[in-house]
Amino acid sequence: MRLLLVISDFIIPVTVLFIVCFGCLKRVKLYETFLEGAKDGLKTVVDILPTLIGLIVAVEVFRAGGLLDIMTNLIRPLADRCGFPAELAPLSLIRLVSSSAATGLLLDIFQNFGPDSFLGRVSSVMMSCTETVFYTMSLYFLSIGIRKTRYTLPCALVANFVGVIAAVVLVQMAFGK
Amino acid sequence: MLDAIWGFFIIGGILTAAALGRMDMVTAAVLSGGKSAVELAITMAGVIAMWSGILKIAEKGGMIDILAEKLTPAMDFLFPSVPRHHKARQYIAANFAANFLGLGWAATPAGLMAMKELQKLNREKDRATGAMCMFLTINMSSLQLVTVNILAYRTEFGSAAPAEIVGIGIAATFMTTLVGIIVAKIMDRTG
Q1: Which domain holds residue A89?
Q2: Domain count, chain A
Q3: All residues at 6 or more sequence positions from B168 whose CB lies less than 8 Å from its CB, including other chains
Q4: Is B80 helix (H, G, I), strand (E, B) or coil?
Q5: Predicted confidence band at B190 (pLDDT cuts at 50, 70, 90)?
Q6: Which of A140, A158, B23, B112 places its Cα 20 to 30 Å from the Cα of A174?
Q7: Summary mean pLDDT of chain A
Q8: Preferred mutation among A11, A32, A56, A121 to probe B, highest tally of B CBs within 10 A
Q9: Which residues have a Cβ under 8 Å from the Cβ of A107 and sit 6 or more positions away?
Q10: Nearest chain B Cα distance for residue A141, angstroms
Q11: Is A55 inside any structural domain?
Q12: What is the pLDDT of residues A11-37, one digit of tens each?
């Protein structure tokens, strides 16, 4: 555990070090090149800002209106019938929409059941193998003006669904219920 | 599709709020949503600019070239329509590498640039290509091996073994990515 946290502390500095050293060896004009990239980066952020505003407002309105609660409540009995822990239904749904809201739910589960409980473990795995689909898809497609997204959404939803099921099944197999 | 989802979020959210008498909360959400987006963008600006700069050094130094070269067999399989040595492949490779390492903020600029390059190969500018669908599917299937912030939260809430879920997380991540690729491949073939 310690080792993992130490490694994770190392990842960013070592990546930066490695790239800069490599660039140095290849006689890249380091600072000049960095500035050139940073400028592009800033432009990117400005370009995606409207998308970001549209996204976050939509998600906030959706959550504040209570529709998300209604939807999770609808899924609950369905999940229950399939033997899927009902407490995790909101998390798996909200995870698709908002990363910060999902983290909030994860912490609620930790608080109420403990991180080492079945639910705590499953939700930890779920958080690590799924992604905020709505956010990522909008950001990437809208940045280049794609409106017809074809089969991207179904693929991403299937992958996420598999992640949710895999989290439950694998945790059950490894630690029991 | 995106229009439909966005419209559904806004219209559905406001209508439910009207039915449940939660209009005040929606008002607050509209006002705070824009604000938090700008705040997020300001945080992002620094980190993304930093990583874009570093990425540029990696690019000019030829490092991303080497990475893309090493991934050629995988790239040929996943993105057959993207020619070898095309810039799109390099940015995709950089995006995947950053995602693997859990450098989400570094992955975003590379990913956006990959999309821009893929768009250059696109004939119908408002319609996603197969390569775009595949790229985003893999991206959204989660590639990150170790989610450090989850481990940190587990530690914070007194887990006896915060990292015990890492192995399972990797297995689950592998499964989601694999299934994503398979489904995208099938969908691509059937139109």
Answers
A1: 29-175
A2: 1
A3: A121, A125, A167, A170, A171, A174
A4: coil
A5: confident
A6: A158
A7: 91
A8: A56
A9: B153, B157
A10: 8
A11: yes
A12: 889 999 999 999 999 999 999 999 999
